[in-house]
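Thread: Newbie trying to understand structure tokens

Hi all, I'm a second-year student working on a class project, and my supervisor (Dr. K.) asked me to get a predicted structure for one chain before our next meeting. I've only ever worked with sequences, so writing a 3D structure as a token string is new to me. If someone could post the tokens and maybe explain what I'm looking at, I'd be very grateful. Here's the chain:
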Amino acid sequence: MPKKDPYAALRYREFNIFILVRFALVFAWSMQFVIIEWQVYALTKDPIYIGIIGLMEIIPALSMALFAGHIVDQREKRNLLATCIALFSLISFGLFWITSPSITASWSVNHILYCIYGFVFFGGLLRSFFGPTIFSLVALIVPKKVYPNAATWNSSTWQMARVLGVTFAGFSIGWLGVDDQSGVHWSLCIVFVLVMFSLAMLYRINRKPILNPNIGEPVVKSLKEGVSFVFKTKAILGALTLDMISVLFGGAIALAAVFATDILNVGSEGFGILVAAPNVGSFLTMLVTAYIPIVRKAGMKLLVAVFGFGLSIIAFGLSTIFWISVAALFLSGVFDGVSMVIRQTILQLKTPDHMRGRVSSVNSMFVGSSNELGAFESGLTAKLMGTATAVVFGGTMTLITVISTALVSPTFRKLDLTEDMEANDKED
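---
Reply by user tm_fold:
Sure, no problem. This is what the structure looks like when written as tokens:
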């Protein structure tokens, strides 16, 4: 077998533009989400209101997910992504406006919360389109033989943007204003600028052909085909289910503001470090996978990675020492990085071109939306059990899920993607 090129995807000009656009968007989105979590907790001092942020995003995201996948498979991808980014800019500007000192001084806390939740809800609608559109566009930019490498760099870009976005958000709150409130306001201005930059850069990518042979297909038939494909493809179904449960119960990072404020006493700067730590771990891991492909024995590696993630979350929940907490979250990111690369590689290799939008939408229902549902679950269990106990509970449920999957699905344990890689090499 010829030696793999770790920079294969980066040798395509449009892919480099694409990851720059993705970096700016994820950086902005990550900043925005962290800043809003901080603002909501500053206004309410109650973790349940942080959980509601996730709930407000997951409701529209889940409701629209399958329909969004159908639309994506029927439309030209570059322009559809441009429309999504333009609408996202309205949300960013709205949050910048609602956090201005004049508004926060004259409006009640409830009115501000309602507006924030409203913008988050609108963002959930958009999110249902973002994932499938981006997933489909990548497959039109690079040839099939470099899909796994593109998945690695794409995921690495996402993680690097998350690292820098959440870290900068935590520090910018304290740096960009005379107090935390003005810091929140001007930090959201930076988010808006980044969104507009990504929109301008996107137009340097050419429009792409629509590969779906069933343009105009009835919506119900289209949706059934997409869902049926996922449930019949055991490799995809197993990977999505495993990741969904781990993210749902292991969403400890949603409570980082509570840990930073009430348990570790490290303020907004420490909060930024906490939320950045898992993303640093994921990013470094993904860079390594560009040089050491992990397609061989992918199923077992995914199980081990999610098990390690669960252990790290338990360690974080038990810690009362800042740097131990940071180390635990860093390790959770390392294991999550392996999981993400394997899952994205499975999706890219196993999904036909004309169904990428719908399959990605199902993925967003299983995994993407479970981030927000996990945030709500974390907020709710923290309210009922206490913050640390809720995190340990979530990590324990993740371990139970991994063990159960390994026992009941020997086929998934033996999953290997080597043959799929070789088939794509021959096709190209």
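A couple of things are worth pointing out once you decode it. The two ends are 15 Å apart (CA to CA). The chain has a mean pLDDT of 80. Feel free to ask follow-ups in this thread.
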